[in-house]
Amino acid sequence: MNGISIGLLGLGTVGSGVVKIIKNHQDKLMHQVGCPVSIKKILVKDIHKQRAVEVDSSLVTTDPDEVINDADIDVIIEVMGGVEETKEYLLTALKNRKHVVTANKDLMAVYGSELLAVASQNGCDLFYEASVAGGIPILRGLADGLSSDRITKMMGIVNGTTNFILTKMSQQGLAYEDVLKEAQELGYAESDPTADVEGLDAARKMAILSTLGFSMNIDLDDVKVKGISSITEEDLAYGKQFGYCMKLIGIAERDGEKVEVSVQPTLLAKSHPLASVQDEYNAVYVYGEAVGETMFYGPGAGSMPTATAVVSDVVGVMKNMRLGVNGKSAVTPQYEKKLKSADEIFSKYFMRIHVKDQVGVFANITSIFSDHHVSFEKILQLPLEEAGMAEIVVVTHKAALSDYENILVQLRDLEPVHTIKSSYRVEGSVKS
Ligand code: NAP
Ligand code: HSE
Protein backbone atom coordinates (compact mmCIF):
# COMPACT_ATOMS: atom_id res chain seq x y z
CA MET A 1 0.00 0.00 0.00
CA ASN A 2 1.35 3.47 -0.91
CA GLY A 3 -0.72 5.19 1.70
CA ILE A 4 -4.21 5.34 3.13
CA SER A 5 -6.52 8.23 2.26
CA ILE A 6 -9.18 9.18 4.72
CA GLY A 7 -12.36 11.14 4.15
CA LEU A 8 -13.50 12.82 7.35
CA LEU A 9 -17.17 13.65 7.83
CA GLY A 10 -17.19 16.30 10.60
CA LEU A 11 -14.54 18.52 12.18
CA GLY A 12 -16.07 19.27 15.57
CA THR A 13 -15.03 17.94 19.00
CA VAL A 14 -14.17 14.41 17.83
CA GLY A 15 -13.12 15.31 14.28
CA SER A 16 -10.50 17.78 15.60
CA GLY A 17 -9.10 15.06 17.85
CA VAL A 18 -8.89 12.68 14.89
CA VAL A 19 -6.89 15.23 12.88
CA LYS A 20 -4.50 15.72 15.85
CA ILE A 21 -3.94 12.00 16.42
CA ILE A 22 -3.32 11.27 12.74
CA LYS A 23 -0.78 14.11 12.66
CA ASN A 24 0.89 13.56 16.06
CA HIS A 25 0.97 9.74 16.02
CA GLN A 26 1.90 9.31 12.35
CA ASP A 27 5.10 7.37 13.24
CA LYS A 28 3.20 4.86 15.34
CA LEU A 29 0.46 4.51 12.70
CA MET A 30 3.03 3.92 9.96
CA HIS A 31 4.82 1.34 12.06
CA GLN A 32 1.59 -0.60 12.63
CA VAL A 33 0.11 -0.41 9.17
CA GLY A 34 3.23 -0.03 7.02
CA CYS A 35 2.24 3.10 5.09
CA PRO A 36 1.35 6.75 5.68
CA VAL A 37 -2.16 7.75 6.74
CA SER A 38 -3.48 11.08 5.47
CA ILE A 39 -6.74 12.99 5.42
CA LYS A 40 -7.79 13.83 1.86
CA LYS A 41 -11.07 15.67 2.40
CA ILE A 42 -13.16 16.97 5.32
CA LEU A 43 -16.89 17.60 5.21
CA VAL A 44 -18.28 20.41 7.41
CA LYS A 45 -21.44 22.47 7.54
CA ASP A 46 -19.85 25.88 7.88
CA ILE A 47 -16.64 26.37 5.92
CA HIS A 48 -15.84 29.69 7.64
CA LYS A 49 -16.03 28.42 11.21
CA GLN A 50 -12.99 28.77 13.50
CA ARG A 51 -11.57 25.28 14.15
CA ALA A 52 -9.90 23.77 17.22
CA VAL A 53 -7.20 22.36 14.95
CA GLU A 54 -5.33 23.79 11.99
CA VAL A 55 -6.19 22.19 8.64
CA ASP A 56 -5.35 23.19 5.08
CA SER A 57 -8.39 25.08 3.78
CA SER A 58 -8.22 23.13 0.48
CA LEU A 59 -9.20 19.96 2.37
CA VAL A 60 -12.44 21.37 3.73
CA THR A 61 -15.69 21.12 1.79
CA THR A 62 -19.43 21.39 2.28
CA ASP A 63 -20.14 18.96 -0.58
CA PRO A 64 -20.54 15.36 0.68
CA ASP A 65 -19.91 13.96 -2.83
CA GLU A 66 -16.34 15.24 -2.69
CA VAL A 67 -15.79 12.82 0.18
CA ILE A 68 -18.02 9.79 -0.19
CA ASN A 69 -17.69 9.57 -3.99
CA ASP A 70 -13.95 10.28 -4.24
CA ALA A 71 -12.42 7.15 -5.77
CA ASP A 72 -9.08 7.78 -4.03
CA ILE A 73 -10.51 7.71 -0.51
CA ASP A 74 -10.14 4.32 1.22
CA VAL A 75 -11.71 4.94 4.63
CA ILE A 76 -14.54 7.23 5.71
CA ILE A 77 -14.47 8.44 9.31
CA GLU A 78 -17.94 9.61 10.30
CA VAL A 79 -17.90 12.02 13.24
CA MET A 80 -20.63 14.42 12.16
CA GLY A 81 -23.56 12.89 14.06
CA GLY A 82 -27.15 12.73 12.81
CA VAL A 83 -29.08 9.72 11.61
CA GLU A 84 -31.05 9.67 8.33
CA GLU A 85 -28.81 11.83 6.14
CA THR A 86 -25.69 10.29 7.69
CA LYS A 87 -26.98 6.79 7.03
CA GLU A 88 -27.40 7.65 3.34
CA TYR A 89 -23.83 8.99 3.18
CA LEU A 90 -22.48 5.83 4.77
CA LEU A 91 -24.53 3.52 2.54
CA THR A 92 -23.14 5.34 -0.50
CA ALA A 93 -19.61 5.10 0.89
CA LEU A 94 -19.97 1.36 1.58
CA LYS A 95 -21.42 0.72 -1.87
CA ASN A 96 -18.39 2.61 -3.21
CA ARG A 97 -16.34 0.00 -1.30
CA LYS A 98 -15.00 2.39 1.30
CA HIS A 99 -14.46 1.14 4.81
CA VAL A 100 -16.30 3.09 7.49
CA VAL A 101 -15.39 4.04 11.04
CA THR A 102 -18.05 5.84 13.07
CA ALA A 103 -18.52 7.24 16.58
CA ASN A 104 -22.26 7.59 16.02
CA LYS A 105 -24.34 5.64 18.56
CA ASP A 106 -27.59 7.31 17.46
CA LEU A 107 -27.05 5.77 14.03
CA MET A 108 -25.64 2.40 15.12
CA ALA A 109 -28.37 1.80 17.72
CA VAL A 110 -31.04 2.12 15.03
CA TYR A 111 -29.42 1.09 11.74
CA GLY A 112 -26.38 -0.87 12.94
CA SER A 113 -27.48 -4.29 11.66
CA GLU A 114 -28.52 -2.90 8.24
CA LEU A 115 -25.24 -1.01 7.80
CA LEU A 116 -23.16 -3.99 8.96
CA ALA A 117 -24.93 -6.21 6.43
CA VAL A 118 -24.26 -3.76 3.58
CA ALA A 119 -20.62 -3.45 4.72
CA SER A 120 -20.11 -7.18 4.64
CA GLN A 121 -21.90 -7.55 1.24
CA ASN A 122 -19.40 -5.05 -0.15
CA GLY A 123 -16.33 -6.57 1.50
CA CYS A 124 -15.93 -3.55 3.75
CA ASP A 125 -15.25 -3.08 7.44
CA LEU A 126 -17.64 -1.02 9.55
CA PHE A 127 -16.15 -0.36 12.97
CA TYR A 128 -17.82 1.67 15.72
CA GLU A 129 -15.76 1.32 18.90
CA ALA A 130 -16.10 5.02 19.81
CA SER A 131 -19.90 4.81 19.78
CA VAL A 132 -19.94 3.21 23.25
CA ALA A 133 -17.99 4.65 26.18
CA GLY A 134 -15.68 6.88 24.09
CA GLY A 135 -12.05 5.91 24.71
CA ILE A 136 -12.74 2.58 26.44
CA PRO A 137 -12.16 -0.41 24.13
CA ILE A 138 -15.28 -2.19 25.38
CA LEU A 139 -16.64 -3.41 22.03
CA ARG A 140 -13.32 -5.05 21.16
CA GLY A 141 -13.19 -6.33 24.74
CA LEU A 142 -16.51 -8.13 24.20
CA ALA A 143 -15.94 -9.17 20.58
CA ASP A 144 -12.34 -10.37 21.06
CA GLY A 145 -11.13 -10.60 24.66
CA LEU A 146 -14.30 -12.23 26.02
CA SER A 147 -15.44 -13.96 22.85
CA SER A 148 -15.07 -17.44 24.34
CA ASP A 149 -17.26 -16.67 27.36
CA ARG A 150 -21.01 -16.42 27.90
CA ILE A 151 -21.83 -12.93 29.19
CA THR A 152 -24.68 -12.86 31.70
CA LYS A 153 -24.62 -9.31 33.03
CA MET A 154 -23.39 -5.92 31.90
CA MET A 155 -23.77 -2.78 33.96
CA GLY A 156 -22.57 0.45 32.46
CA ILE A 157 -21.98 4.04 33.38
CA VAL A 158 -21.98 4.91 29.70
CA ASN A 159 -22.92 8.57 29.69
CA GLY A 160 -20.20 10.99 30.79
CA THR A 161 -22.48 14.03 31.04
CA THR A 162 -24.86 12.48 33.58
CA ASN A 163 -22.04 10.95 35.62
CA PHE A 164 -20.38 14.37 35.71
CA ILE A 165 -23.65 16.02 36.82
CA LEU A 166 -24.44 13.43 39.53
CA THR A 167 -20.86 13.50 40.86
CA LYS A 168 -20.77 17.30 41.16
CA MET A 169 -24.29 17.46 42.63
CA SER A 170 -23.59 14.88 45.30
CA GLN A 171 -19.97 15.77 46.15
CA GLN A 172 -20.08 19.56 45.87
CA GLY A 173 -23.79 20.25 46.30
CA LEU A 174 -23.86 22.12 42.96
CA ALA A 175 -27.15 22.83 41.16
CA TYR A 176 -28.21 20.56 38.28
CA GLU A 177 -28.45 23.40 35.68
CA ASP A 178 -24.99 24.81 36.53
CA VAL A 179 -23.25 21.44 36.21
CA LEU A 180 -25.07 20.63 32.96
CA LYS A 181 -23.80 23.93 31.52
CA GLU A 182 -20.25 23.03 32.55
CA ALA A 183 -20.57 19.57 30.92
CA GLN A 184 -21.70 21.27 27.70
CA GLU A 185 -18.76 23.70 27.79
CA LEU A 186 -16.34 20.81 28.29
CA GLY A 187 -17.70 19.06 25.16
CA TYR A 188 -19.16 16.01 26.98
CA ALA A 189 -22.82 16.72 26.31
CA GLU A 190 -24.56 16.25 22.96
CA SER A 191 -25.51 19.48 21.11
CA ASP A 192 -29.02 18.92 22.49
CA PRO A 193 -28.31 17.54 25.99
CA THR A 194 -31.86 16.14 26.35
CA ALA A 195 -30.60 12.79 25.05
CA ASP A 196 -27.93 12.75 27.77
CA VAL A 197 -30.04 13.74 30.77
CA GLU A 198 -33.13 11.75 29.77
CA GLY A 199 -31.10 8.56 29.37
CA LEU A 200 -31.54 8.11 25.62
CA ASP A 201 -27.82 8.42 24.83
CA ALA A 202 -27.07 5.69 27.40
CA ALA A 203 -29.96 3.59 26.05
CA ARG A 204 -28.48 3.70 22.54
CA LYS A 205 -25.13 2.55 23.93
CA MET A 206 -26.79 -0.24 25.94
CA ALA A 207 -28.63 -1.43 22.80
CA ILE A 208 -25.28 -1.64 20.98
CA LEU A 209 -23.53 -3.29 23.96
CA SER A 210 -26.21 -5.87 24.64
CA THR A 211 -26.55 -6.77 20.95
CA LEU A 212 -22.85 -7.58 20.94
CA GLY A 213 -22.55 -9.02 24.45
CA PHE A 214 -25.63 -11.28 24.24
CA SER A 215 -25.31 -11.95 20.47
CA MET A 216 -28.97 -11.00 20.07
CA ASN A 217 -30.49 -8.11 18.08
CA ILE A 218 -31.55 -5.68 20.84
CA ASP A 219 -33.39 -2.66 19.44
CA LEU A 220 -33.48 0.75 21.05
CA ASP A 221 -37.20 0.22 21.76
CA ASP A 222 -36.33 -2.84 23.86
CA VAL A 223 -34.42 -0.67 26.35
CA LYS A 224 -36.53 0.76 29.20
CA VAL A 225 -35.34 4.31 29.85
CA LYS A 226 -35.54 6.82 32.68
CA GLY A 227 -33.26 9.86 32.95
CA ILE A 228 -31.80 11.95 35.78
CA SER A 229 -33.65 15.25 35.39
CA SER A 230 -36.05 14.63 38.29
CA ILE A 231 -33.44 13.52 40.86
CA THR A 232 -33.50 15.79 43.89
CA GLU A 233 -30.97 16.75 46.58
CA GLU A 234 -33.14 14.84 49.10
CA ASP A 235 -32.81 11.63 47.06
CA LEU A 236 -29.03 12.01 46.98
CA ALA A 237 -28.94 12.73 50.73
CA TYR A 238 -31.06 9.68 51.64
CA GLY A 239 -28.97 7.55 49.29
CA LYS A 240 -25.82 8.68 51.10
CA GLN A 241 -27.39 8.10 54.52
CA PHE A 242 -28.26 4.52 53.52
CA GLY A 243 -24.75 3.86 52.10
CA TYR A 244 -25.55 4.25 48.39
CA CYS A 245 -24.53 6.63 45.63
CA MET A 246 -26.73 7.65 42.71
CA LYS A 247 -25.59 6.73 39.19
CA LEU A 248 -27.31 6.52 35.82
CA ILE A 249 -26.80 2.82 35.17
CA GLY A 250 -27.46 0.78 32.06
CA ILE A 251 -28.27 -2.77 33.08
CA ALA A 252 -28.34 -5.70 30.67
CA GLU A 253 -28.96 -9.06 32.29
CA ARG A 254 -29.50 -12.54 30.87
CA ASP A 255 -31.21 -15.44 32.66
CA GLY A 256 -31.28 -18.55 30.50
CA GLU A 257 -32.53 -17.45 27.09
CA LYS A 258 -34.20 -14.23 28.23
CA VAL A 259 -32.74 -10.76 28.69
CA GLU A 260 -33.66 -7.39 30.17
CA VAL A 261 -32.06 -4.10 29.21
CA SER A 262 -32.72 -0.78 30.95
CA VAL A 263 -31.21 2.58 31.73
CA GLN A 264 -32.27 4.22 34.96
CA PRO A 265 -30.99 6.25 37.91
CA THR A 266 -29.86 3.61 40.36
CA LEU A 267 -28.80 3.70 43.98
CA LEU A 268 -25.60 1.73 43.97
CA ALA A 269 -24.01 0.27 47.10
CA LYS A 270 -20.78 2.17 47.75
CA SER A 271 -18.91 -1.16 47.75
CA HIS A 272 -19.89 -1.86 44.11
CA PRO A 273 -16.97 -1.44 41.66
CA LEU A 274 -18.99 1.08 39.61
CA ALA A 275 -19.56 3.34 42.64
CA SER A 276 -16.01 4.68 42.42
CA VAL A 277 -16.49 5.91 38.83
CA GLN A 278 -16.63 9.69 39.12
CA ASP A 279 -16.97 12.81 36.96
CA GLU A 280 -17.16 12.26 33.19
CA TYR A 281 -15.55 8.84 33.44
CA ASN A 282 -17.36 5.77 32.11
CA ALA A 283 -17.08 2.14 33.08
CA VAL A 284 -18.67 -1.09 31.99
CA TYR A 285 -18.88 -3.94 34.47
CA VAL A 286 -19.13 -7.27 32.65
CA TYR A 287 -19.92 -10.59 34.26
CA GLY A 288 -19.10 -13.71 32.26
CA GLU A 289 -19.90 -17.27 33.36
CA ALA A 290 -16.27 -18.32 33.05
CA VAL A 291 -14.30 -15.14 33.62
CA GLY A 292 -16.43 -13.83 36.51
CA GLU A 293 -16.27 -10.09 37.24
CA THR A 294 -14.42 -7.68 34.96
CA MET A 295 -14.58 -3.91 34.64
CA PHE A 296 -13.54 -1.65 31.77
CA TYR A 297 -12.87 1.92 32.90
CA GLY A 298 -11.82 5.16 31.24
CA PRO A 299 -12.86 8.43 29.64
CA GLY A 300 -16.22 8.02 27.94
CA ALA A 301 -16.31 11.33 26.12
CA GLY A 302 -14.19 14.24 24.99
CA SER A 303 -12.14 15.01 21.93
CA MET A 304 -8.90 13.04 22.33
CA PRO A 305 -10.23 9.91 24.14
CA THR A 306 -12.99 9.45 21.57
CA ALA A 307 -10.63 10.16 18.68
CA THR A 308 -8.25 7.50 20.04
CA ALA A 309 -10.96 4.86 19.63
CA VAL A 310 -11.80 6.17 16.16
CA VAL A 311 -8.22 6.11 14.88
CA SER A 312 -7.60 2.70 16.47
CA ASP A 313 -10.54 1.43 14.40
CA VAL A 314 -8.80 2.82 11.32
CA VAL A 315 -5.71 0.81 12.29
CA GLY A 316 -7.99 -2.25 12.53
CA VAL A 317 -9.29 -1.60 9.01
CA MET A 318 -5.75 -1.27 7.69
CA LYS A 319 -4.55 -4.46 9.35
CA ASN A 320 -7.48 -6.25 7.71
CA MET A 321 -6.51 -4.69 4.37
CA ARG A 322 -3.02 -6.16 4.66
CA LEU A 323 -4.50 -9.56 5.46
CA GLY A 324 -7.19 -9.23 2.78
CA VAL A 325 -10.00 -9.96 5.25
CA ASN A 326 -12.04 -6.74 5.24
CA GLY A 327 -15.76 -7.25 5.79
CA LYS A 328 -15.28 -10.70 7.32
CA SER A 329 -15.03 -9.88 11.03
CA ALA A 330 -18.65 -8.92 11.81
CA VAL A 331 -20.51 -11.81 13.47
CA THR A 332 -24.28 -11.95 12.95
CA PRO A 333 -26.33 -12.45 16.17
CA GLN A 334 -26.53 -16.09 17.25
CA TYR A 335 -29.75 -16.00 19.30
CA GLU A 336 -33.33 -15.01 18.70
CA LYS A 337 -34.38 -12.07 20.88
CA LYS A 338 -36.34 -13.05 23.99
CA LEU A 339 -37.14 -10.30 26.49
CA LYS A 340 -38.05 -10.90 30.12
CA SER A 341 -41.52 -9.87 31.26
CA ALA A 342 -42.03 -7.71 34.38
CA ASP A 343 -42.60 -10.78 36.59
CA GLU A 344 -39.18 -12.14 35.53
CA ILE A 345 -37.20 -9.00 36.43
CA PHE A 346 -36.03 -8.90 40.04
CA SER A 347 -34.42 -6.03 41.88
CA LYS A 348 -34.34 -4.06 45.11
CA TYR A 349 -36.07 -0.66 45.12
CA PHE A 350 -35.88 2.65 46.99
CA MET A 351 -39.08 4.65 47.49
CA ARG A 352 -39.76 7.99 49.18
CA ILE A 353 -43.38 8.84 49.98
CA HIS A 354 -45.13 11.84 51.57
CA VAL A 355 -48.15 10.80 53.62
CA LYS A 356 -50.62 12.19 56.13
CA ASP A 357 -49.24 11.60 59.62
CA GLN A 358 -52.30 9.72 60.94
CA VAL A 359 -52.94 6.60 62.99
CA GLY A 360 -52.84 3.46 60.82
CA VAL A 361 -51.24 4.98 57.70
CA PHE A 362 -47.90 3.31 58.27
CA ALA A 363 -49.66 -0.04 58.76
CA ASN A 364 -51.74 0.50 55.58
CA ILE A 365 -48.64 1.16 53.56
CA THR A 366 -46.65 -1.77 54.89
CA SER A 367 -49.59 -4.10 54.29
CA ILE A 368 -49.67 -3.11 50.58
CA PHE A 369 -46.04 -4.20 50.34
CA SER A 370 -46.64 -7.46 52.21
CA ASP A 371 -49.76 -8.23 50.10
CA HIS A 372 -47.37 -8.28 47.13
CA HIS A 373 -44.77 -10.40 48.96
CA VAL A 374 -42.28 -7.54 49.10
CA SER A 375 -40.33 -7.12 52.32
CA PHE A 376 -38.25 -4.21 53.60
CA GLU A 377 -34.51 -4.09 53.94
CA LYS A 378 -34.73 -0.59 55.49
CA ILE A 379 -37.62 1.64 56.47
CA LEU A 380 -37.70 5.11 57.99
CA GLN A 381 -40.45 7.54 58.97
CA LEU A 382 -39.74 11.20 59.72
CA PRO A 383 -42.02 14.18 60.36
CA LEU A 384 -42.10 16.83 57.62
CA GLU A 385 -42.03 20.60 58.24
CA GLU A 386 -45.54 20.80 56.80
CA ALA A 387 -47.91 20.17 59.73
CA GLY A 388 -49.58 16.77 59.81
CA MET A 389 -47.34 15.27 57.13
CA ALA A 390 -44.61 12.63 57.29
CA GLU A 391 -42.03 11.18 54.96
CA ILE A 392 -41.57 7.42 54.63
CA VAL A 393 -38.42 6.10 53.00
CA VAL A 394 -37.97 2.42 52.20
CA VAL A 395 -35.45 0.12 50.59
CA THR A 396 -37.00 -3.22 49.68
CA HIS A 397 -35.50 -6.65 49.43
CA LYS A 398 -35.48 -8.13 45.92
CA ALA A 399 -38.92 -8.03 44.35
CA ALA A 400 -40.48 -8.78 40.99
CA LEU A 401 -40.91 -5.60 38.92
CA SER A 402 -44.57 -6.52 38.32
CA ASP A 403 -45.22 -6.64 42.10
CA TYR A 404 -43.37 -3.38 42.66
CA GLU A 405 -45.34 -1.64 39.88
CA ASN A 406 -48.62 -2.87 41.40
CA ILE A 407 -47.53 -1.48 44.78
CA LEU A 408 -46.93 1.93 43.17
CA VAL A 409 -50.42 1.86 41.61
CA GLN A 410 -52.09 0.98 44.93
CA LEU A 411 -50.10 3.56 46.88
CA ARG A 412 -51.11 6.30 44.42
CA ASP A 413 -54.75 5.37 45.04
CA LEU A 414 -54.41 5.37 48.84
CA GLU A 415 -56.04 8.51 50.25
CA PRO A 416 -53.45 9.37 52.96
CA VAL A 417 -50.62 9.12 50.42
CA HIS A 418 -49.96 12.66 49.23
CA THR A 419 -47.11 12.04 46.75
CA ILE A 420 -44.69 9.34 45.74
CA LYS A 421 -41.69 11.65 45.68
CA SER A 422 -39.23 9.22 44.11
CA SER A 423 -38.60 5.62 43.23
CA TYR A 424 -35.30 4.07 42.10
CA ARG A 425 -33.77 0.71 41.44
CA VAL A 426 -31.15 -0.36 44.01
CA GLU A 427 -28.09 -2.49 43.19
CA GLY A 428 -25.83 -4.13 45.73
CA SER A 429 -26.05 -4.52 49.49
CA VAL A 430 -24.92 -2.24 52.25
CA LYS A 431 -23.81 -3.85 55.50
CA SER A 432 -24.96 -1.69 58.40
P1 NAP B 1 -19.75 18.26 16.95
O1 NAP B 1 -18.70 18.87 17.79
O2 NAP B 1 -21.09 18.90 16.92
O3 NAP B 1 -19.18 18.18 15.45
C1 NAP B 1 -19.95 17.77 14.36
C2 NAP B 1 -19.21 18.12 13.08
O4 NAP B 1 -19.91 17.62 11.98
C3 NAP B 1 -19.05 19.62 12.84
O5 NAP B 1 -17.79 19.88 12.30
C4 NAP B 1 -20.15 19.95 11.84
O6 NAP B 1 -19.78 20.99 10.95
C5 NAP B 1 -20.23 18.66 11.07
N1 NAP B 1 -21.58 18.41 10.56
C6 NAP B 1 -22.68 18.13 11.30
N2 NAP B 1 -23.74 17.93 10.51
C7 NAP B 1 -23.30 18.11 9.25
C8 NAP B 1 -23.92 18.05 7.97
N3 NAP B 1 -25.22 17.80 7.83
N4 NAP B 1 -23.15 18.25 6.87
C9 NAP B 1 -21.84 18.54 6.99
N5 NAP B 1 -21.19 18.61 8.18
C10 NAP B 1 -21.92 18.39 9.27
O7 NAP B 1 -19.97 16.74 17.33
P2 NAP B 1 -18.96 15.78 18.12
O8 NAP B 1 -19.09 16.01 19.59
O9 NAP B 1 -17.61 15.83 17.51
O10 NAP B 1 -19.65 14.36 17.86
C11 NAP B 1 -19.54 13.73 16.62
C12 NAP B 1 -20.10 12.30 16.72
O11 NAP B 1 -19.35 11.55 17.66
C13 NAP B 1 -21.55 12.22 17.18
O12 NAP B 1 -22.16 11.12 16.56
C14 NAP B 1 -21.42 11.97 18.67
O13 NAP B 1 -22.54 11.34 19.24
C15 NAP B 1 -20.22 11.05 18.69
N6 NAP B 1 -19.47 11.02 19.93
C16 NAP B 1 -19.09 12.19 20.53
C17 NAP B 1 -18.35 12.15 21.70
C18 NAP B 1 -17.90 13.41 22.38
O14 NAP B 1 -17.28 13.31 23.45
N7 NAP B 1 -18.16 14.59 21.84
C19 NAP B 1 -18.00 10.92 22.25
C20 NAP B 1 -18.39 9.73 21.60
C21 NAP B 1 -19.12 9.80 20.44
P3 NAP B 1 -19.55 22.49 11.47
O15 NAP B 1 -18.37 22.42 12.39
O16 NAP B 1 -19.24 23.27 10.24
O17 NAP B 1 -20.80 22.91 12.17
N1 HSE C 1 -22.76 12.92 25.35
C1 HSE C 1 -22.04 11.71 25.49
C2 HSE C 1 -21.71 11.51 26.95
C3 HSE C 1 -20.77 11.75 24.67
O1 HSE C 1 -21.92 12.42 27.75
O2 HSE C 1 -21.30 10.41 27.33
C4 HSE C 1 -20.12 10.42 24.52
O3 HSE C 1 -20.90 9.52 23.80
TrEMBL record:
It catalyses: L-homoserine + NADP(+) = L-aspartate 4-semialdehyde + NADPH + H(+). InterPro entries: ACT-like_dom_sf (IPR045865), ACT_dom (IPR002912), Asp/hSer_DH_NAD-bd (IPR005106), HDH (IPR016204), HDH_cat (IPR001342), HDH_CS (IPR019811), NAD(P)-bd_dom_sf (IPR036291). Keywords: Amino-acid biosynthesis, Metal-binding, Methionine biosynthesis, NAD, NADP, Oxidoreductase, Sodium, Threonine biosynthesis. GO terms for molecular function: homoserine dehydrogenase activity; metal ion binding; NADP binding. NCBIfam families: PRK06349.1. Belongs to the homoserine dehydrogenase family. This is Homoserine dehydrogenase. It comes from Bacillus mesophilum. The lineage of its organism: Bacteria, Bacillati, Bacillota, Bacilli, Bacillales.
